[in-house]
Specification:
This protein is mainly beta and 121 residues long. The protein is 4% helix and 44% strand.
Length: 121
């Protein structure tokens, strides 16, 4: 049982859209990722997805509207809802997801990171 310093952990995150695991609770992973540019449209059929902006600004595009999140703001994408995160500039984001959550749901793209490749930092 050790405390987690988010800024120290974010310094270990290389690249964009590649979440790293920093904790586990109640069958969920706590993940950190750097966002820049656009992710692909995707949905998670069985899981909700929690986004907390630690630094910067992101937009979570939904099919009917965009949700802009600034530092200190969070949003939960309900299961089954298509979404596409985007960040004009580098942003630091913390996510809570069940351990079995596929990075881009059933959508495969060059940005997809397999569960086996989401490492602890």
């Amino acid at each position: 049982m050790n405390k987690i310093n988010l800024q120290e952990k974010f310094e270990l995150v290389d690249g964009y859209w590649s979440p790293k695991i920093v904790g586990e609770l109640n069958g969920q992973y706590v993940k950190l990722a750097k966002f820049k540019g656009e992710m692909v449209w995707h949905a998670h059929a069985n899981e909700d997805e929690f986004f907390q902006v630690i630094k910067g600004t992101i937009v979570i595009h939904l099919r009917d509207k965009p949700i802009t999140l600034n530092e200190g703001e969070c949003f939960i994408v309900p299961r089954g809802v298509e979404h596409k995160p985007e960040a004009a500039e580098e942003a630091q984001v913390m996510m809570f997801e069940p351990k079995a959550t596929q990075h881009t749901g059933a959508t495969e793209s060059d940005l997809t990171v397999a569960i086996d490749n989401q490492h602890w930092i």
